[in-house]
Each structure stands twice: as structure tokens, then as C-alpha cells.
Amino acid sequence: MKMITLSLIAILSYSSFAKEAPKLVFPKDEIISVETNDGDYATISEVEYNIVKINGVSLVKSYLVIDLSSKTPVKEIHLSDGQIIRAERAGAALSGGDAGGGGKN
Predict the structure, then answer these.
(1) pTM of the shown model
(2) What pLDDT digit, counting tens, does each position of 52-76 carry?
(3) Does 41 map to a domain?
(4) How many independent structural domains does the chain possess?
């Protein structure tokens, strides 16, 4: 059930920012850390208190918002239930990607 909830949040986020790059939105209490392409980790607390700044990652109220543009260095999002979301795959799924041949014209 939790995975469905997170997917719905991500899809709603994409539709509300349709003119911009896709964004993933997660409740911050379900995130443990974010891993960058450099292999660095930032905990949700480090992001929340601006100890670590990651391009394209911000907190809006009680949600972590990740911009999936090509400039975002986010590689993986580590959830509190042990799941790992790969930002690249999540971005492809939201924008049509190459899965099933749908999406881009």
C-alpha cells in the first residue's frame, strides 16, 4: 500500500509541474537519505536543516521535492521501509521513458 501511495504522489507531482522537469515528492518522514551520483549521502535531517545542499532537492512543508532534470545529482532515495528508489528510473517512468514505447512523439 505504501508503494502505491508514493507512486500516486509522484504522478500528481508530475502533472502539477507539467511545464517543468518532472518532480518526485515524498513525505519527509518516509525518507532516510538521498544518495548523489558522487556516492555522497545526505540524511533527511541534513537536508532539512541546510547542513547539506543538493542541487534540485528541497523541502516544502513536510515533503521532500526532487527535481528530476538532467542537472540533478540525485541517484537514489532511501526510504524508511528499506526500499530504494532510483531517480533515473522514476524520471523515465513519469515522462514516458522507453518502457513500452509510450511517451514521446
Answers:
(1) 0.65
(2) 888 888 898 899 988 877 677 888 9
(3) yes
(4) 1
